[in-house]
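hi support,

uploading two proteins for the ticket. first:
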Amino acid sequence: MEKTLVVLAAGMGSRFGGLKQIEPVGPNGEIIADYSVYDAIKFGFTKVVFVIKRENLEYFKEHIIRKYEDKIKVEFAFQSLEGLPNIPASREKMLGTAHALLCAKDYVNEPFIMINSDDFYGQESFLLAASFLDNSKDDYEYLSVNYPFMVTSSKVGKVNRGLPIMDSNGVITDIEECSIEVVDNKVYATSKNTGEVREIPRDMPVSMNFLVFKPTIFQFLERDLGLFLASGVNDSNELILTDVLKKCIHNKEITYKGVTTTAKWFGVTYREDLPELQNTLKEMIKEGKYPEKLWED
């Protein structure tokens, strides 16, 4: 089966302090997305689509994809506010993850994984996703590859995570976007929608935007983006994937499954998060999971 990797790379890292998508993390200047593309190729993916800002295109061509464009087909989709109705002239911020993914629609006709460019997800997660795509026959069956919360926490500050609620068959029946922090060795999640605060288990599975879709997802994204644009856009509100998926679940339009991976996850929400990822990659190279130089010149 043809499988595609979609990488969301249009966001700026405000808390990180720069364009974290292109921050070197590997011993030879590799960025996080390099490792994701390497893992995708390893498990049979034949195309990668980067969703970026148009002004970053030349940088991506020159410094990033030239390393592996002979190993996997590469496409670029651009996230922009241009041409969208009802956008205030003062708005600069992009419209959120649902819009970002929708920007890739014209380049994706096959089942795919969607990931963040600034998260390291691990090979075990790509294996789970590839196996799901190779065996799932339902065009409206999707998958979230989740991680135990403490694997994804930051020592520096609060983090935003999706909290999926699953039944005994591993089907997600609800999902809530939350701000989560550790206080006195306890974990507290604050709902972004209601403000409700509750304690959660340290190993509770959380969504890290490692999501496995069929092309049918685009019809829901188009529908909800249209409603979002018509409802009143200001300078900061967003349409996020969690809200689209939550609506699809409640409307019984999809079967949304969840599985918890054993892979290590690393992100760079804050600049202080970098050293731990860099040290872990060195250990993985020693263990033989990755070559010291991912891409030969």
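and the second one:
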Amino acid sequence: MADQPGVFWLNGALLAGDASCIDPSDRGLLLGDGLFETIAVRRGQARDVQRHFARLQQGCALLRLRLPWDLAAVERALDEVAVGNGLLEGGLRLTLTRGPAPRGLLPTAAARPTLMITGFCLSPVASPVRVIVSTQIRRDAASPLSRIKSLNYLPNILARLEAEDAKVDDAILLNQAGFVAEATTGNIFLKRRGKWLTPFVSDGALPGICREKFLESGQVEEARIHAAWLSSAEAFCIGNVLSVRAVSQIGPIAVPTTDYLRTGPG
């Protein structure tokens, strides 16, 4: 990227990165009332924008959050941020909030949504990685919020802190029934009996873009993954649109890393 602080896009305008921009009454800041998408940039191009926009629309429908920008406008904004920051390889963060509003939980019809897009470079990905199974946090598979990218990531943050305390890289989240759901930073891909498997969305897996493409390509199948399978995994990966990381250890159990999903599909 260009010299920091770079530029970002806010409600139709490209601004300097040090510009004051957060309204103190914005519901995204105060209540986590909003959504986000993390979009990969490869060779200067934002990837899979239509897929991200479709998921954003689904989240808006669930939250009853108005989206005043269409796909073409969002694509232009993403390009402006990538170009404005000289971003060739990295990512773009799209953040949508319900916008500034009076105090109280109930949204008002007059709320003006806030849309902000920022760019970032990618840090080197440490791979393979070590993980634990979180004992503190369970994924609520029954909640519709488990199927969207909401701004409230506190359960994932607490699980990630648990992993940090254990001096490992990430944590696997089980659902309330004890089945594997996802990791704090991506979807889970487990190889068992020669097949790559990923948890069902109904078991708490986020409908990730990387996951969706692996399923479409036939490289991965959906399955209910029992926690006991983790100890006998033939291979294990954590993936999102930015990277696919091989897992070498789950708690005290070593996992083979000679066979894994080495790159994201497409």
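thanks. also noticed: The mean pLDDT is 93.
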